[in-house]
Amino acid sequence: MKGNNSDMGQDNTFPGNSSTGDDQPPVDPYSGAEHPGTSGFKPEDGVPDQSEPEDTVPVEKPDGKRPRRRSARDVMRRQWLIIGGIVLGVLVLIGVVIWILVGALANRPAADATPEPATSSSRGPLPADVEAKDYQLGDCFADFNSNATKSRVVECNTDHSAQLGAIYRYKAEDSFPGATALQTKGRDVCRTVMLNEASSKYVLLQQNVYPSSTSWGNGDRRVDCFIVVDSGNSLKESILQK
């Protein structure tokens, strides 16, 4: 509500080699090294001796036990264990991320109320003297005075000095936020105003009108942003986008 109990703020800006021979180094039966395969003639019968490489026979360990060979099934089982571990880790990570997001959304404050859209409901015949509490979005005012309890609302295609560009309403149950918070809110509200191309022809200012502690106690919860011309009733058209 505007009037003698209201406050007003104003801003003036609008955006390794190998050897040969028969001598071979001894082989340690317990070293795990493999015996080389041999081929040649047996001296007693002259029949060629064909023997397979001994790498198919596991070397016995000192305790008499043969080392256990790893079967293809063991290898496959290990691969599946590794894959399963990776999948489990990814699922755990996804769960943590979801938990964090849910927590963040749950603690997010409710969205603030938005300014009213730049439309105005129909009035009776104009011009008319209208009380400040009844100003509507898009109203055009002749000889505008932000501190007056009433202003003359005129057709926007006639001479006027101001137009109401945005309205913000606090909730009825809200506590008085203080003058500084109201001033900041007024500037934020004015940033939402969308001007049309015709506005570029004028030197425009903004005026923020918001409740005083007294008018708040009387139920005033609105913050208004008026777009005003620098002097006189020199506006001859609406300067708001439709």
Write the layout of secondary structure elements.
Elements: E1 6-11, E2 39-41, E3 48-50, H1 72-106, E4 128-131, E5 140-142, E6 150-154, E7 162-169, H2 179-190, E8 204-211, H3 213-217, E9 222-229
Antiparallel strand pairs: 1-8, 2-3, 4-6, 5-6, 5-7, 7-9, 8-9
Strand content is 15-25%
Question: Mean pLDDT score, rounded?
Answer: 76
The largest beta-sheet arranges its strands as 1-8-9-7-5-6-4
Stretches where pLDDT is under 50 for at least 5 consecutive residues are 2-57
| Number of strand segments | 9
Which structural class fits the helix and strand makeup? alpha+beta
Shape: elongated
Question: Quaternary state, please?
Answer: single chain
Main sheet makeup: 7 strands, antiparallel
Can you tag this structure with a few keywords?
single chain, 242 residues, alpha+beta, seven-stranded antiparallel beta sheet, two-stranded antiparallel ribbon, 3 helices, elongated
Brief synopsis:
With 242 residues, this protein is an alpha+beta fold. The protein has 3 helices and 9 strands. The strands form 2 sheets. The protein has a 7-stranded antiparallel β-sheet with strand order 1-8-9-7-5-6-4.
